[in-house]
Design goal:
Elements: E1 2-6, E2 9-18, E3 21-28, E4 34-35, E5 40-43, E6 48-50, E7 59-64, H1 69-85, E8 90-95, H2 100-109, E9 117-118, H3 124-127, E10 135-139, E11 144-150, H4 155-170
Parallel strand pairs: 7-8, 8-9
Antiparallel strand pairs: 1-2, 2-3, 4-11, 5-6, 5-9, 7-10, 10-11
Length: 171
């Protein structure tokens, strides 16, 4: 058992092997969490969607753009997780400053089935202090930010933080 600390959060990671596969279990202990700001984004039809609409369900919020190379590189593992857990964990893949049409075209061309969300009101930049993308937030079902990650997440890093949300739905 090793203790992992970061951003005021205390987590325990337990490594174990079953039939030759390395598995991990995470348990949050006495975590100091930060409530997520209740920002508004917009769906493909132009309807406002508030982050608070998803309280009761864990959320992965990713801010990206088609012109951002690092954003594009990390989307495949977000999509793989969405295909497997999209009914239990909400995936808000939000285009920072491009149109719905641009996002839909990109998702279609690349075989992604995420719902399209855009940052039409430009709230995300100030609410989450975004100075560059990609930015990913892992938010628990109570609306608290467990991890705010700036820059590209490598697959192992994504899986590590995503497992925090998985542990919540598996509990």
């Amino acid at each position: 058992v090793c203790r992992i600390e970061g951003s005021g959060e205390q987590f325990y990671r337990i490594d174990f092997t079953v039939e030759g596969e390395d598995l991990y279990a995470y348990r949050r202990e006495e975590a100091m969490v930060t409530p997520a700001p209740d920002v508004t984004i917009y769906d493909a039809a132009g309807n406002p969607v508030k982050l608070s609409d998803f309280v009761g369900k864990p959320v992965v919020l990713n801010v990206w753009a088609t012109w951002c190379g690092f954003c594009v590189q990390e989307l495949p593992y977000f999509h793989d997780a969405y295909l497997e857990y999209g009914d239990q964990i909400e995936f808000l893949i939000v285009n920072l400053n491009e149109s719905v049409e641009t996002s839909e075209q990109f998702f279609g061309d690349n075989g992604y089935s995420f719902p399209v969300y855009v940052n039409s009101a430009q709230e995300l930049e100030s609410a989450f202090e975004i100075s560059g993308i990609p930015v990913t937030l892992f938010i628990d079902s109570n609306g608290n930010i467990l991890r705010h990650s700036e820059g590209m997440l490598h697959e192992e890093e994504f899986q590590y933080y995503f497992n925090w949300l998985r542990a919540e739905i598996d509990a």
